[in-house]
Design brief:
GO molecular function: heme binding; iron ion binding; monooxygenase activity; oxidoreductase activity, acting on paired donors, with incorporation or reduction of molecular oxygen
CATH class: Mainly Alpha
Family: Belongs to the cytochrome P450 family.
Organism: Streptomyces bauhiniae
Order of helices and strands: EHEEHEHHHHEHHHHHHHHEEEEHHEEEEH
Distance between the termini: 37 Å
CATH superfamily: Cytochrome P450
Protein name: Cytochrome P450
Helix content: 25-40%
InterPro entries: Cyt_P450_B, Cyt_P450_CS, Cyt_P450_sf
Structural class: alpha+beta
CATH architecture: Orthogonal Bundle
Radius of gyration: 23 Å
Oligomer: single chain
Number of domains: 1
């Protein structure tokens, strides 16, 4: 393809060829840094060293030393995602894939294998699929959404409010997004601890990941069948009845995309926002004094800890330049919100409060910008506000430096967020949250519960509890207990995410 007449970075067309070790043309590691394994124990530090050495776009190596560019600059990330004529999400033209460097069992494959979803499409097909998704999401009643978030928050807090302690990651942040998304999609009856565990299990790539993924997909398939026969007023029905005429496979895959993406990103956002509320010096004082609102806290968290650190991937459709680097047709690039958000050209002081500024990269941009970002913001905003209303004296149980994180190229997860508070009484889930105290010697009136929850033992964190596998279909062959099966694509994905 012919290069653009004018290079977006302003670098002359007569610039020298690719530097030694260029990810598209190197013959080996070539001194390039790996974004996995021992080289990636501190990715934030590595990104800054790469920025100092290479500028806003740097050559790196992914798992199995697959070459890639990582885009570190804020402006360069925005240019890439907003330039569909130069960069595509369709990986079929990615040079390492065409040259056989990315094998079928490569841990990157779940991220790059093309699927019938708008995120992997472009042109007219992208417009058709994206229009259906955007229109379906646009039918959400925001007053109803607020009621759903408040009600779900009440239910979750009722599970632990009488104990005086909780882990806000495993008992709150990992449950609230799933509860709300099941309601939005039209399957509130499917929300329970098992659905949450299945989603977590499928994303982590454990030994039961395939069974867990099947469990979720069976629920989405059943929902698609029911709404195809009898549409109602929910996102699934509007997706099915849209003039774009999505088939059942397209509907199911977009429901999976909406459910998993919203769950993972919003769970991370909730946990990070709550950590900020509990640990930032003077933050609670600013909140209580009216100088900082919860929405501003959410935006600050999106700057400091975006739900995804990097996103794979974008692929060059032609020879071009970006950030002073010569990018060849077929090169792959990582969209990188985490290092882009701390680009010193737009944020000289990375510790400064951004005061509600929404120009961060957390939700992407351009034609593939996250269509559900307002829902994610609403779940985090209303959920955090409702939790603080119910538990105004909440405080961190451990020292901030004792909090544990699970970091990978894709994201940085808070493992747990243990808190203490004065025990509180349960509240009616159908009423707005309010402050209350627990009177241990006074009989409590029964609290209406619209959904069936697990028994009290389910209130404990379930980080290590494996999900019970779904019943085997008739005629299936049980897995052998003598030898472990080869890693599934979900296991390979999770190991890659963890940098193993």
């Amino acid at each position: 393809m012919t290069p653009e007449p004018q290079n977006p970075t302003g670098t002359p067309d007569t610039a020298p060829g690719p530097p030694p070790g260029c990810p598209a043309h190197g013959t080996g590691p070539g001194g390039l840094h790996r974004l996995y394994g021992p080289d990636a124990l501190d990715l934030d530090d590595l990104y800054e060293r790469l920025r100092e050495k290479h500028g806003p776009v740097a050559p790196v190596l992914l798992h199995d030393d697959v070459p890639m560019w990582v885009v570190l600059g804020h402006a360069e990330n925005l240019h890439m995602v907003r330039s569909p004529s130069q960069y595509t999400r369709d990986s079929r033209g990615w040079t390492p894939l065409l040259e056989g460097m990315v094998k079928p069992d490569h841990p990157l494959m779940p991220h790059i294998a093309r699927q019938p979803i708008c995120a992997h499409a472009e042109g007219d097909e992208h417009q058709r699929l994206r229009a259906a998704v955007t229109a379906a999401m646009g039918t959400i009643d925001h007053r109803g959404l607020r009621r759903s978030i408040n009600s779900s928050t009440q239910e979750l807090v009722n599970r632990f409010c009488g104990r005086g302690r909780a882990d806000l990651v495993s008992q709150f942040a990992e449950h609230l997004p799933m509860a709300v998304m099941c309601e939005i999609l039209g399957m509130p009856e499917e929300f329970d601890d098992r659905m949450v565990q299945a989603a977590r299990d499928a994303l982590k790539g454990t030994d039961t990941a395939i069974q867990s993924h099947t469990y979720v997909m069976d629920a989405l398939s059943g929902l698609t069948t029911r709404r195809r026969a009898r549409p109602e007023d929910d996102v699934t029905s509007h997706l099915i009845t849209h003039p774009a005429g999505l088939g059942d496979d397209e509907v199911r895959e977009h429901l999976r995309l909406l459910l998993f993406a919203a769950y993972e990103t919003t769970a991370n956002l909730l946990a990070n926002a709550l950590r900020m509320v509990l640990t930032e010096p003077g933050f609670r004082a600013r909140l209580n004094g009216g100088q900082m609102t919860v929405p501003e806290a959410i935006e600050q968290s999106l700057w400091d800890e975006p739900p995804f650190s990097t996103v794979l991937g974008y692929y060059a459709k032609q020879d071009t330049e970006l950030g002073g680097q010569r990018i060849r047709r077929g090169d792959g690039l990582l969209f990188a919100p985490a290092p882009g958000n701390v680009d010193p050209r737009v944020r000289p002081d990375p510790t400064a409060h951004m005061k509600g500024n929404r120009s961060h990269l957390a939700f992407g941009g351009g034609p593939h910008e996250c269509p559900g970002q307002d829902i994610g913001r609403a779940i985090a905003d209303i959920g955090v506000d409702a939790l603080l209303t119910r538990l105004p004296d909440i405080r961190l149980e451990c020292a901030e430096e004792d909090l544990r994180w699970r970091s990978s190229i894709a994201s940085r997860h808070l493992v747990s967020l243990p808190v203490l508070f004065e025990p509180k009484a349960k509240q009616d889930v159908n009423r707005a949250p309010s402050m209350s105290s627990l009177h241990p010697h006074r009989a409590e009136a029964p609290v209406p519960q619209p959904r069936a929850w697990a028994e009290d033992k389910a209130e404990e964190p379930v980080e290590s509890a494996p999900i019970a596998p779904p019943a085997e279909p008739a005629g299936s062959v049980p897995a052998s207990s003598e030898s472990a099966p080869p890693p599934s694509r979900w296991q390979r994905m999770w190991r890659w995410l963890l940098g193993e």
